[in-house]
Amino acid sequence: MMRDARATGRALWDATARFHGPGYAPRWSDPDLDPAFAALCELLLDGPRAR
User: Fold this and answer.
1) What does the alpha-carbon distance between residue 6 and residue 22 come to, in Å, rounded to a whole number?
2) What is the DSSP letter of 48?
3) Domains of the chain by residue range
4) Alpha-carbon gap, residue 38 to 6, rounded angstroms
5) Tell me: the pLDDT tens digits for 6-25?
6) Could you tell me the end-to-end alpha-carbon distance of the chain, in angstroms, rounded to an integer?
């Protein structure tokens, strides 16, 4: 449940920073980045739940 939209938005921005922040551009060619992005998207879309 989202209790504070501003805090939730900030948490999402912070969690995804390495995928959009220009300071991270030199790391964007890292082969581990795509799986990390996929895992983060899955977490964000499905939410943390027991599997």
Assistant:
1) 23
2) S
3) 5-46
4) 24
5) 888 898 899 999 999 999 99
6) 19
In whole angstroms, give the CA distance from residue 46 to residue 20: 21
Q: Quick: pLDDT tens for 19-51.
A: 999 999 999 999 999 999 999 999 888 876 655
What is the rounded distance in angstroms from the CA atom of residue 51 to the CA atom of residue 6? 29
pTM, rounded to two decimals: 0.69
41, 39, 35: which is closest to 12 by C-alpha? Answer: 41
- Give the Å distances, CA to CA, from 5 to 13, 18, 32, 50: 12, 21, 31, 24
